[in-house]
Amino acid sequence: MSESSYLPLVAILRGVQPHECLSLGRILVDAGYQMIEVPMNSPTPLASIELLAKEFGQDVLIGAGTVTSVEQVKQITAVGGKLMVAPNTNADVIRAAKQAGMYCMPGCITPTEALIALDAGADALKFFPAELTPPAVIKAIRTILPAGTLVCAVGGVTSSNMADYMAAGCRGFGLGGSLYQPGISVEAFKHNAETLINRFISLSQPQENQA
Length: 211
Description:
This protein is of the alpha/beta class. The protein has helices spanning 18-31, 45-56, 70-78, 91-99, 111-120, 135-142, 162-167, 186-210, and strands at residues 9-12, 35-39, 61-65, 83-85, 103-105, 107-108, 125-127, 151-154, 172-175. The two termini are 22 Å apart.
């Protein structure tokens, strides 16, 4: 699976309930999202992942976030999850995810962690939390990464600061609180989903043309 196979914008549904995940997933898919993450510290996350994978898994990359153990990787793949997003750099977890055929986006915050993650087989790097790795920091770290490394910012990303991170070399994002929070109305969620993806697309096209 190449990094260009999916739009690198991860919709993070932290706290989502199984009974609402399909309706929210439909809004995301209709808006153009191709990567959906249910963090493992959500209520019954495996049930939500299984529902989403069965409904949208043919066209959209469905999986879990906040993955911190090899055992969790096994649980996620057992219900059809194909995306592994982690908050940290754990080479054993990364290797297990790649051996299971998953798209792997581990978290990192230093050059050492970034290179360890890539060496273990990571498909993309998640700089998390972005509040601690502002654009200037990510720009500096990118200078020592292999060419073509997909760098994503996660944590505190909004439509207003996407441009700064993209100017620093980020080509993808994880969208959490600016997209979904438990209890949000369907109308507000739809507005957030469309606003964020439209902002990303409007910013990414000029950058691709300049590359």
